[in-house]
Amino acid sequence: MPKKFSFRKWWKEEREKLSEMSFKKAVKYIWQYYWIFILGFIGIIWLAVFAVNRILTGTPEYRIYAVFANSTVNPANISRLQNDFAEYSGRDIHEKQIEFSTNMYFDYNRNQARGNEYYNSFVALTDTGTLDLITMYPEQLAPLGESGRLLDWNLERCAELREKYADRLIWYQPPDYMEETDPVPVGIDVSDSLLVTKYGIYPESAALGIASETTRLDEVGKFIEFIMSK
Fold this sequence. Notes:
Distance between the termini: 68 Å
Number of strands: 6
Helix content: 40-55%
Number of helices: 8
Structural class: alpha/beta
Shape: elongated
Strand order of the largest sheet: 2-1-3-6-5-4
Strand content: 5-15%
């Protein structure tokens, strides 16, 4: 039978090891063997601070919350997009907030965005049901499907959108070691949309994914309809 893990014994052994090392070597050792736990702890603290801040300041009531990641667009263009969408959809921006943000920069291709504060923000916004959609370059969106925070367009509640934009679907290919290895549709290509052609949020190509915990799928559909209008 395997030996029962003893935290006290483990802690004693680790302290003895560290006591024999220089400060520099100790830091290197801790990071080399425990970096996953360190980043996990930082993530938990960040989420806790985010949650407390929401409780204390109150959560705004959003009509739609969109993030345009990895964009360097002029803020004036975002304001124009926000106002044009409000007018197109007949929404009163004073009744419920339309939040369009470009303050997010991460690429899941790079070590699954570990340690990236913007990615942690994306996770928090998604897991709390705040975020509705995210756009980024197509080659960046597909890998983000691995995070589990992009809506699977195979779901029944996405049937209408899936049928309407079937020729634009972007697929995430799960690795062989996962139970489900069939490609999963996690977004659509919107390179010819107003995001590129009119507002210049991206210079040439763009993709759109829906946040997995959104409860405002109708608003997302209206936004897609708007950016695909000519």
